[in-house]
Amino acid sequence: MANEYKVHEDKMKKTLEVMREEFGTLRAGRANASVLDRITIDYYGTQTPINQVASISAPEPRLLAIQPWDASTLKAIEKAIIASDLGINPQNDGRIIRLLFPSLTEERRRELVKQVHKLCEESKVAIRNVRRDAMDLYKAQKKKSEITEDDLADIEKDIQTLTDRYIKEVDAMGAAKEKELIEV
Known about the structure:
Layout: H1 6-25, E1 40-43, E2 46-49, E3 54-60, E4 63-68, H2 74-83, E5 91-92, E6 97-100, H3 106-143, H4 149-183
Helix pairs in contact: 1-3, 1-4, 3-4
């Protein structure tokens, strides 16, 4: 693709990055520190992500250990995890919080697969919106006679090719995440 489409391609790439981050927050039966990314605590008056106030490790495939650098934040971290939609009860031994991820039930797997499909569809809509905005921009240039009818046809073809490539990538990422959820 030519450099004139770079701005549109960057927006499509950003959509994939957002989708990848969202996929990371889906709890899939094995321990993954990214499920804690959205959970924040009040740390000296500032909402702070847990990963900025504690070290997070996965000593076992289904266990996360959270060790705060400041022991006074232990209770706040525990409360934030309980209040979140994570659905796991933290075990606090006074020094470390442990999160044991249960095996996924078939029903929970289906719910997660539905979430994956929803995220994929939202990403496809976002990519198509980028395409629409790009096309509106180039059609406006055609109307002002800045580009020719032939240029516009070539641009439409190029933008559609770019869109198709990113839609395929969304489908591939969605299929991979779905497979991961089913096989856990």
